[in-house]
What we know:
Blueprint: H1 2-21, E1 50-54, E2 59-62, E3 74-80, E4 87-92, E5 101-110, E6 116-123, E7 126-135, E8 140-145, E9 151-159, E10 166-172
Antiparallel strand pairs: 1-2, 3-10, 4-9, 5-8, 5-10, 6-7, 6-9
Amino acid sequence: MKKFRHLLAFLLTLCLCVTMTTTAFAAESKMATNDQPFNYLNYEFPEDAQILYQSEDAVIYTTNTDSQMTRAVEYNQVWVDAGRVKTGSFTVTNPHPWGGTGECRLRLESNASNVSMNISVYAGLTVFLASQHIDTSKDIVFAYNVLKSDFVIDYATDDISSQHGMRLNCWLS
């Protein structure tokens, strides 16, 4: 029995060593489907393309149609329990600090329709909203030029419900 265990351990170790030395094969990234090297220097761009970077190995460009494509979105929220008065702040990471414009959407959600908050939104030294009233009836949406700073949302409950809590949501896109 002892020799069988040693033999089994040896065989399993041998299998492990063989599987660890097996190499993975992959196609070269510079090859096109017809096995010809792809030439990024003579690439045909769309008419409205703005080239951000171009080399023999890669090209990065943007077009006006990119604004209709999916953008990065960051989200954060705060929950306030029923019957509780609360003040504080939370941060939302800027999803694209490299340039362009973005959109900020703030929404207050609750099962009670009579709740509200006062909010202020700023990024660095730029104040976007100062002591703005928000309730559950509509979102607050504004556009901004992208900054390198994260957004900070200060909030203070205004009207509260004794039976239902509320959630303040913020999306940056």
